[in-house]
């Protein structure tokens, strides 16, 4: 018997599972910090005498800076690597979250200005987070596991509500809305330091063995995406630097434009949930802020289950058919069509039915939330951060438009009915984008500029 043991016979380590768990936890904190204002919103708006239009603009502040900072954030990731840029991002956005609690000690006019400014700063600091998630998944996961990995970390946005909406609702009820910001900011700072101690690239991680490294590399993982720590910045900057020509080529690619449009519409559902949904439960359905925090958990839990299930379904289709296009499009289109059930809330009166239709809509949204898997599948190696940044720029334009449009609908009609139709129609457009515009899903190959 041969004493030689092949790589295939060696038990692979499972470091990539720890990596995606950390991405999930950081994404959970990320979205909890975004949602602090929606939980504190009813009490805060009452104390500062803010009308729906003013609240809509304050809700949108995060989105303005988050969108503008996406491409610069992606460039930083390509130049300096995901680990350090992400760590600084987590710590800085958490500091600005914590500082929002202090606006309650200012006069009303000053408090509004400072709150808007702090939300802008949170948006800037969070900009690299999701492009970094996509880069890390591309570096650590083979193609046949990438859908599940991306869906898992992305489902942190729903888990944030499951865990933190009741907690933040209780904090706001028991201690006042200011402490929502204090507690969440402090938690994020701790998470930033944990990240620095535990996250490395595949070539650097002390716990990965050769069997796992070869498995992910042979499966298409971009293990060289972040240069090893002994490479100098000067050596990797020329290849990692992402010029305007890379951006131009991505913006002229029909597949990517369809993906960008789809993500804009998908995120409209996300930002309704993160901004106006608790207000809808309090103002339209008569719940207390404490009740709203707990009621919001059921749609969020369904979104979380749908999010994980969407990735599992996608990777199963990929293994069965070998078609990346079918594997990504089927869950996305089906999920978006299911999300249109949010409009049914306009036609029922019982709170249980309202929550049920919301849960169904967010279950569908979770199944269809595979955009970051598509980014990991399609981004060119030399511009992964910038590609993710562009994707997130277009996707998060809805973080600006959604709260403002809904604010104006409420001001004009005094009802959420039009707002729910607006959200449902965006789900329909997302399905159209993937069915008609995107075409075949494949990795973009950039042409060298002369």
Give the biggest beta sheet: none
Helix and strand succession? HHHHHHHHHHHHHHHHHHHHH
By CATH's scheme, which homologous superfamily of the largest domain applies? MFS general substrate transporter like domains
The CATH topology name of the largest domain reads Growth Hormone, Chain: A
Q: How many domains is the backbone divided into?
A: 2
- The total beta strand count reads 0
Report the span from N to C terminus.
57 Å
Proportion of strand residues: under 5%
The CATH class of the largest domain, by name, is Mainly Alpha
Helix content: over 70%
Gyration radius over CA = 22 Å
Please give the count of helices: 21
**Average of pLDDT:** 82
Low-confidence stretches: 1-9, 228-242
How are the SSEs ordered, and which strands pair?
Layout: H1 15-48, H2 52-68, H3 70-80, H4 82-99, H5 108-126, H6 129-140, H7 143-154, H8 156-175, H9 178-198, H10 210-218, H11 233-240, H12 244-251, H13 254-284, H14 289-295, H15 297-321, H16 324-339, H17 351-368, H18 371-378, H19 384-395, H20 398-413, H21 417-437
Helix pairs in contact: 1-5, 1-6, 1-7, 1-8, 1-9, 1-13, 2-5, 2-20, 3-4, 3-11, 3-19, 4-5, 4-6, 4-9, 6-7, 6-18, 6-19, 7-15, 7-18, 8-14, 8-15, 13-14, 13-19, 13-20, 13-21, 15-16, 15-17, 16-17, 16-21, 20-21
Question: How would you describe this protein?
Answer:
There is one protein chain. By secondary structure, this protein is mainly alpha-helical. The protein folds into two domains: 13-223, Up-down Bundle (Growth Hormone, Chain: A); 243-445, Growth Hormone, Chain: A (Up-down Bundle). It is built from 21 helices and no strands. It has helices at 15-48, 52-68, 70-80, 82-99, 108-126, 129-140, 143-154, 156-175, 178-198, 210-218, 233-240, 244-251, 254-284, 289-295, 297-321, 324-339, 351-368, 371-378, 384-395, 398-413, 417-437. α3 packs across α11 (233-240), α13 (254-284) packs across α14 and α16 runs antiparallel to α21 (417-437). The longest helix has 34 residues, at 15-48. The protein is globular and about 60 Å long. The model is unreliable at 1-9 and 228-242 (pLDDT under 50). Residues 19-442 form the Major facilitator superfamily (MFS) profile domain. It is found in: Cell membrane. This is ACS family glucarate transporter-like MFS transporter. InterPro entries: MFS, MFS_dom, MFS_Na/Anion_cotransporter, MFS_trans_sf, Sugar_P_transporter.
């Amino acid at each position: 018997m041969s004493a030689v043991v092949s790589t295939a016979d060696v038990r692979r380590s499972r470091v990539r599972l720890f990596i995606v768990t950390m991405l999930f936890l950081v994404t959970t904190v990320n979205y909890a910090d975004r949602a602090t204002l929606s939980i504190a919103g009813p009490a805060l708006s009452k104390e500062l005498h803010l009308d729906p239009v003013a609240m809509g603009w304050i809700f949108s502040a995060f989105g303005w800076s988050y969108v503008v900072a996406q491409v610069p954030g992606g460039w930083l990731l390509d130049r300096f690597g995901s680990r350090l840029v992400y760590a600084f991002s987590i710590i800085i956005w958490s500091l600005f979250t914590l500082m929002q609690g202090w606006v309650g000690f200012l006069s009303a006019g000053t408090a509004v200005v400072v709150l808007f400014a702090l939300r802008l700063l949170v948006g800037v600091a969070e900009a690299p987070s999701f492009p970094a998630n996509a880069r890390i998944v591309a570096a650590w996961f083979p193609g046949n596991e990438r859908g599940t990995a991306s869906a898992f970390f992305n489902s942190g946005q729903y888990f944030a509500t499951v865990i933190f909406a009741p907690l933040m609702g209780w904090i706001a009820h028991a201690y006042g809305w200011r402490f929502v910001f204090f507690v969440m900011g402090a938690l994020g700072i701790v998470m930033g330091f944990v990240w620095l101690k535990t996250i490395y690239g595949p070539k650097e991680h002390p716990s990965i063995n050769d069997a796992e490294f070869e498995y992910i590399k042979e499966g298409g993982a971009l293990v060289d995406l972040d240069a090893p720590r002994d490479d100098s910045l000067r050596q990797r900057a020329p290849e990692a630097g992402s010029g305007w020509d890379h951006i131009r080529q991505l913006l002229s690619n029909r597949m990517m434009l369809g993906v960008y449009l789809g993500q804009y519409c998908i995120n409209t559902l996300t930002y309704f949930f993160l901004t106006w949904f608790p207000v809808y439960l309090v103002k339209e359905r008569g719940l207390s802020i404490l009740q709203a925090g707990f009621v919001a958990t059921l749609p969020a839990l369904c979104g979380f289950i749908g999010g994980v299930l969407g990735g599992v379904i996608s990777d199963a289709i990929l293994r069965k058919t070998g078609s990346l296009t079918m594997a990504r499009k089927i869950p996305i289109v089906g999920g978006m069509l299911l999300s249109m059930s949010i409009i049914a809330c306009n036609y029922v009166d019982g709170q249980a039915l309202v929550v049920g239709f919301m849960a169904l809509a967010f279950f569908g949204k979770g199944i269809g939330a595979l955009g970051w898997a598509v980014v990991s599948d399609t981004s060119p190696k030399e511009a992964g951060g910038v590609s993710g940044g562009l994707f997130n720029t277009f996707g998060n334009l809805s973080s600006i438009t959604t709260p403002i449009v809904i604010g104006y609908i409420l001001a004009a009609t005094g009802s959420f009915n039009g707002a729910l139709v607006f959200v449902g129609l965006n789900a329909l457009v997302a399905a159209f984008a993937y069915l008609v515009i995107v075409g075949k899903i494949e990795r973009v190959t950039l042409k060298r500029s002369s």
